[in-house]
Amino acid sequence: MPRPSTLSPRLLLLLPSTTYRATAFVEAARRLDIALSVASERSSTFEQAQPAGLLTLDFTAPADAAARAAAFAREHPLAGVLGVDDNTAVVAAAIAERLTLRGNPVAAALAARDKHRQRELLGRTAGSVAVPRFALYPADADAAALGRLVEYPCVLKPLQLSASRGVIRADSPAEFVAAFRRVAAILAEPEVAACGESARSVLVEQFVPGPEFALEGLLVGGRLAVLALFDKPDPLNGPFFEETIYVTPSRLALAAQCELAATTQAAATAMGLVEGPIHAELRYNERGPWLIELAARPIGGRCSAALRFGTGDEGTEKGWVSLEELIIRHALAMELPTLERERQAAGVMMIPVPGAGELRELRGVEAARAVPLVEDVAITAHRGQRLVPLPEGARYPGFIFARGPGPAEVEAALRDAHRRLEFVLG
Ligand code: ADP
Ligand code: CA
Fold this sequence. Notes:
By secondary structure, the chain is an alpha+beta fold. Among the domains are: 10-112, Rossmann fold; 133-206, 2-Layer Sandwich (Dna Ligase, domain 1), CATH 3.30.1490.20; 344-426, D-amino Acid Aminotransferase, Chain A, domain 1 (2-Layer Sandwich), CATH 3.30.470.20. 30% of the residues lie in helices and 27% in strands. The structure holds adenosine-5'-diphosphate and calcium ion (CA). The site of calcium ion has 2 residues, from loops.
């Protein structure tokens, strides 16, 4: 593998320590033959050996991180910066602003990370983005009194967590009180409380019924390119909202798909997001599309492996363009190849947490991998790991990937593979 020449543009990639996304980004950078600098929160002993390749930044202090990145860039000029999750997206915005690189305004990235701020901005779009009615309450409020006030059904949620952690539906005052206490307890967990102000409030929203979709997109100069629209075929009616299957292309009527895209574009504009990856969740019912959430980052976990673009060899990696490659090219203002997803249908299942307990053994992985159309079963939980179901937990034990002629076949293959897995908990 040739080393990138000193003329290769340099990308600063901000990697949280708990991400599955590092490999895909590093791979993409290597394929593109660009120079890569990785910033993480913990200093590494390799830093001195690789001064251009590694640096340490405090992701909780975006302005400081931007100042450090600016100093770094004087030695190692940067052509682009990328965050991979909600927090690093804010830091990337601060660095991009400071170094006039491609990126979002900091205020927009902050709004994308904060569910309440986001609702406030979208609530002002005069109906071009439908959002549920909402109200924010302090986490130490009198739950019983609130329970008499709010409309039902409603959804309670923290402002900054992800993967549906702490998101709970309540249909009655009694359920509200229990849910409120449960969310407050999650907010009081030390690692959550450390997020500061955002961990001291609970957002309460009207429950929006209807099937849910996820839209993966890339903003280029404020315009949304839809990279994929995923169906979420398992109904998400609560009380908890475990993500399971994502399948694309969507089977929703084309006109409705266009409405989802238009709503997402309007939401991004209202929030001030202009550049880079977005991941939106929307519902669709008789009143049209509703925006559940818009994040200024790519799809989470390992899920991006379900997406590939252009044309390549079936069954191999050859020729295809990955989501990470598109994102890096865009960040570096390199020419974009086609944004057209492959012809085949593709899907991923975030394997639901099978229960609470220590993972003793996982049987059936080979059988699951052998299911036709299944491409991979990636188990990320390790033996001995404590599995915690929603709403307290957040980590899926693994991911199943499938590709095939159509979304129905892909969905069936994912379900079939999942049925073959047997988790033994202790
Ligand atoms: P997270 O950032 O943890 O994913 P979300 O706000 O996206 O939090 O909520 C997670 C899931 O909970 C959504 O994908 C959706 O299924 C459900 N949900 C959240 N808010 C609502 C709502 N107001 N109405 C209906 N479902 C909701
Ligand atoms: Ca979400």
